[in-house]
Each structure stands twice: as structure tokens, then as C-alpha cells.
From TrEMBL:
Gene Ontology biological-process annotations: protein localization to membrane
Taxonomic source organism: Salpingoeca rosetta (strain ATCC 50818 / BSB-021)
Lineage, opening ranks: Eukaryota, Choanoflagellata, Craspedida, Salpingoecidae, Salpingoeca
Record's protein name: Transmembrane 9 superfamily member
Family named by the database record: Belongs to the nonaspanin (TM9SF) (TC 9.A.2) family.
Superkingdom of the organism of origin: Eukaryota
Record carries keyword tRNA processing: no
Keywords per UniProt: Membrane, Signal, Transmembrane, Transmembrane helix
Length: 564
């Protein structure tokens, strides 16, 4: 501790163009440089970072240094090759073209803080400055900034090659200690600084609030002016002779609560949506309070999985009550599907993606033992809790509808374009997605761009706006749907609420091709697989928002009218 080193040798590696193993290893390094692979180190539970902008710092908040997690294996310069990335190494100038360089030297800057309350010093920051240096000999190392860079070139052998070519790589490092005023409790502030996006975050919130106010205004006009007038007119018409000439949403009061097609699957999806929603709400709540700190690596994912497993009870309860309301008799099938369908789809997709990671020998692949542990948690904790919730759900009295159902279903008249299934569902997802797409950009950039995402306060506000927007847009379209005398609203409400997941998946695909500089079919398959899982769970959550809001709305409006 506090002993600096300037140019220490680490290792030496020689690659020969006549050795197949050397060629294979060389090709892997070339691939890593071309695809922007990163080194991720940890020192004293702090991830190492590299400064990317404002490295000299300043007084104003916008002049503070900005860091990214890790540092690249190397870099490449080349205007002709799209696979080559722009070099940002400090000792490489514009004289090089179509060259590839490797970071064979790193200067590690360890910042420490001394306090009279603590004996010794505490590490409060770790920064690296990668460089490419051409070392002539391990006995004459020179790590000065003026040293020329190390081109990473090795001529591949041809069939008639007679000369052997070698590439000598010498890896070195330097360690420097700097005393810092940053206290131990504030050492994560550097990593969590998001000053570059704060103004955009506030713009996102304001944009979302404008959408909410717009929807609320439209909904208010419908409820106050149109709906209340309809109710008053319908109730007054009870004593008139032309009462049978009713039109609009009251005309279908005897069919509006008719059991939908496939009530079993609808109950399963809504129950699973409630489970996922509860998990998201609790996770965001504790994240906003600071309990899910990035200092605990994997804490966020562990909390989400644990909550998902333990929240099987509300899932089973909601699914059972809905299925009983629909008059379903296959209660065992309903409970088993609630406990296994959605987790099975997610686990199956994740297992396939993990197989691909195993095949690619990736360090991101989960060990087989971890998958077994997840399966044990699923079958021995989540499934029994779902049965417990279903038991209490079936014990409850059946939900009574405010109006009686007719024995013979009425014929549905021809529908206008805006109330037909596909156009109405697609329209329902536009405004909710408009509330989240800016925040979604920051989330995807953090996940795939080597940054920490810790603005859970903004995320929680956007989540609340998403809930309100989804419910309001679904109710609005549901009202138009009922006014066109179409009583098939159950599935329509769920699909309309979840339609924003379609735009989410499209946006993720666009983000991949426009923002991510990666290639290879395996990377594309992995990205699309994870995006599909995220979009499916998002569909469950927003579909549940829309269904619950529309269910409450329909019950309320038909409870206040007078019917025979």
C-alpha cells in the first residue's frame, strides 16, 4: 500500500505463424479487439474505471470527469473496415491507418483516503489508463508516454510459406497512489454520477407527464360529459315508451360479462402479471431507498429472483378468483399452469441462451449447479406458494356481476376500423411506450455500454406514469369498443394494455443495429433472446395494468344504470 511502481513487467508472450495453437490464440485476441471486448477488474470491491471525458475535471458539475466501467482489450484504426473501431489510446496519433493495437500496459491509479477515525488508509477509487507500448526488450523497459504504440500484427502462413514470423508481446503495468478527499461513504459517487443525462431525464419525465395530462383530459371529458350524460339518459328512459330503442354501451348489458374465450389462459396470464408487477414494485421501492447498492454485485438480480419465488401466493390467489368468476371447473389445471407456464417459458428461453453461452465458452454462462438451484426454488417454494394462494382464492365467494347475463348472445354489428382488433391493440400501445422510450435508452445503454444504472428515482416516477398511461389508454379504447356494441372486451383489454411490449421489442432491435457495434450470429441471437424475455415480461405487466383498470371501469359503469 502506498508504494508506487512505474514500469513493472507482468508477462511475455510470443506468437509464431507456424504454430496452430498460437494462431488460434492470436485470432481470439484479434476478434476481441475488433468486437470491443473489455477488461473488467475489481479492487477492494470497487470496479476499475477508465475516464472517457472531462478527465482534467472542473468546478462546474458538467465539467466533472465521466468514467466507464472497464477498459478495452485494444483498438483499431481503419476507415475502410467497418469492423475496426476508433482508437482512443493516448499515445496513438492520426498517422496510423488500418492498424490494430493492443493494450499491453496499464497505469493503475489507486485513490485512498486517510481518516483519524480509521487506522490506515481506505481505497476510495480505482482508475486505469491503458496504453499500447512497443517494448524492444524485457531488459530495457520504457513506459514513457512518448514511446511508440505496439501494432498487433502477425502475418498468417501460406501454403508455400518458408519463413517463420513471430510476434513478441510484453505486458507491463504501473501503480500510482493518490490521496483523495473523498470519504469512504461517498466512494461510489464517482461511479454513479449521471450528470450527462440528468437534463434528458427531466425532459423524459415532463414529456411523460404531458402525455398523462392529455389522456386524463380525454378520459375526464368522456366520464364527465359523455358517460354521465349517457347514464342519466338511460336511467330516465326507463319510464318512457321508447326505452327499448337504447343504443351504445347499455344495449349490451346482458352480454358484457359473458365468459370470454379461453378463460383459463386469461386467468393464468393475469395472475402471473400480478406476480411480476408486485416483484417490480417491491424491487423499485427498496432500490429507491438505497438497499440495492451496486457495491453488492448481483444484489439487484438476486432480489428480483427471490421476490419472484416468494410472490407465488398473490399470483395463485388472483388467478383462482378470476377463474372461479368465469365458472371454470378445472381448478387443478388452472393452479398448475399459473405456477409453471410463465416461469417455464422464461426458464426455457434462458436455458437455450445459456446453452449458446456454454458452446461459446463464455464466462457469462451460468453453471449447471446454479440452474439446478433455480429449478429447486421454483418447484419447492414458488409452486407450493401458488397452491396456497389458489386455495384461499377458491375459498372466497364468487365475484358477482352488477348485471345479469342473457341466455342468448346478441349479434355484434359491423365494427368501424378504429375498434377492430389489430388497429385498436396497436393504437393502445403507442402512448404508454412514448412515456418510457427515453428512459429505455438509458437502461439499454447502461446494460450494454459498460455503465452503472442507478437513477431508480427517475425510473420509479416513469413506472408510475406508465401505470397511469396504460390504464387510461386501455379504458379509453375499451369505452369506444363498448359503444360500438362489441362485448368481447376481456382479452381486448389485456392485449391493448400489453401492446406497448411490441414497440419495446421493435425499439430493442433498432437499438441493436444502430447503437451496438457488435457482429456475429451468436451475439445477435443472444441479444434477441434476452430482449424477447424482457418484452414478454413487460407484456404481462402492462397487460395486467390494462385489464385491471378496464375491469374496474366496466363494473362501475354497469353498476350505476337501471336495467330490467
Amino acid at each position: 500500500m502506498q508504494r508506487s511502481k512505474t514500469c513493472e513487467p507482468l508477462c511475455r508472450r510470443t506468437y509464431k505463424n507456424t504454430n496452430k495453437k498460437d494462431i488460434s490464440k492470436y485470432n481470439k485476441i484479434v476478434m476481441a479487439i475488433r468486437k470491443d471486448y473489455m477488461h473488467h477488474w475489481i479492487l477492494d470491491n470497487l470496479p476499475i474505471v477508465e475516464c472517457t471525458s472531462n478527465c482534467k475535471g472542473g468546478i462546474r458539475p458538467e465539467d466533472q470527469p465521466y468514467y466507464r466501467l472497464g477498459f478495452p482489450v485494444g483498438c483499431a484504426i481503419g476507415a475502410a473496415e467497418k469492423s475496426l473501431t476508433a482508437c482512443t489510446l493516448r499515445n496513438i496519433n492520426n498517422m496510423y491507418q488500418n492498424e490494430m493495437f493492443i493494450n499491453n500496459h496499464v497505469d493503475i491509479i489507486i485513490r485512498y483516503h486517510e481518516s483519524p477515525e480509521f487506522e490506515g488508509a481506505r481505497v476510495v477509487g480505482v482508475e486505469v489508463q491503458p496504453r499500447s507500448i512497443r517494448h524492444e526488450s524485457p531488459d530495457a523497459l520504457d513506459c514513457s508516454p512518448n514511446r511508440p504504440p505496439q501494432p498487433f500484427k502477425l502475418k498468417m502462413p501460406t501454403k508455400d510459406a518458408t519463413e517463420e514470423e513471430t510476434l513478441d508481446l510484453i505486458f507491463t503495468y504501473g501503480v500510482y497512489f493518490e490521496e483523495s478527499d473523498i470519504k469512504w461513504a461517498s466512494r461510489w459517487d464517482t461511479y454513479l454520477r449521471s450528470a450527462e443525462g440528468v437534463s434528458i431525464q427531466w425532459f423524459s419525465i415532463i414529456n411523460s407527464l404531458v402525455i398523462v395530462l392529455f389522456l386524463s383530459g380525454m378520459l375526464g371529458i368522456i366520464l364527465v360529459r359523455t358517460l354521465y350524460k349517457d347514464i342519466a339518459r338511460y336511467n330516465q328512459a326507463e319510464d318512457r315508451e321508447d326505452a327499448q330503442e337504447e343504443f351504445g354501451w347499455k344495449l349490451i348489458h346482458g352480454d358484457v360479462f359473458r365468459t370470454p374465450t379461453n378463460p383459463l389462459m386469461l386467468s393464468v396470464l393475469v395472475g402471473s402479471g400480478v406476480q411480476f408487477t408486485c416483484m417490480v414494485v417491491i424491487t423499485l421501492f427498496f432500490a429507491c431507498l438505497g438497499f440495492l447498492s451496486p457495491a453488492t454485485r448481483g444484489g439487484l438480480m438476486t432480489a428480483m429472483v427471490t421476490l419472484w419465488v416468494c410472490l407465488g401466493t398473490p399470483s395463485g390467489y388472483v388467478s383462482a378468483r378470476m377463474y372461479k368468476m368465469f365458472g371454470g371447473e378445472k381448478w387443478k389445471t388452472n393452479t398448475i399452469m399459473t405456477a409453471t407456464f410463465v416461469p417455464g417459458v422464461v426458464f426455457g428461453l434462458f436455458f437455450i441462451l445459456n446453452l449458446l453461452l456454454w458452446a461459446e465458452h463464455s464466462s457469462a454462462a451460468l453453471p449447471f449447479g446454479t440452474l439446478v438451484v433455480l429449478a429447486v426454488l421454483w418447484f419447492f417454494i414458488s409452486v407450493p406458494l401458488t397452491f396456497v394462494g389458489a386455495y384461499f382464492g377458491y375459498k372466497k365467494a364468487t365475484l358477482e356481476h352488477p348485471v345479469r347475463k342473457n341466455h342468448i348472445p346478441r349479434q355484434i354489428p359491423p365494427q368501424p376500423l378504429y375498434t377492430r382488433t389489430l388497429p385498436a391493440i396497436l393504437m393502445g400501445g403507442i402512448l404508454p411506450f412514448g412515456c418510457i422510450f427515453i428512459q429505455l435508452f438509458f437502461i439499454l445503454t447502461s446494460i450494454w455500454g459498460h455503465k452503472l444504472y442507478y437513477v431508480f428515482g427517475f425510473l420509479f416516477l416513469v413506472f408510475l406514469i406508465l401505470v397511469v398511461t396504460t390504464i387510461e389508454s386501455t379504458i379509453l379504447l375499451c369505452y369506444f369498443h363498448l359503444c360500438s356494441e362489441n362485448y368481447h372486451w376481456w382479452w381486448r383489454a389485456f392485449l391493448t394494455g400489453g401492446a406497448s411490449a411490441i414497440y419495446l421489442l421493435i425499439y430493442e432491435i433498432i437499438f441493436y443495429f444502430r447503437q451496438m457495434e457488435v457482429d456475429g450470429k451468436a451475439n445477435l441471437f443472444l441479444y434477441l433472446g434476452y430482449s424477447t424475455i424482457a418484452s414478454f415480461l413487460f407484456f404481462l405487466m402492462t397487460g395486467t395494468f390494462g385489464f385491471v383498470g378496464c375491469f374496474y371501469f366496466v363494473r362501475r359503469i354497469y353498476a350505476v344504470i337501471k336495467v330490467d
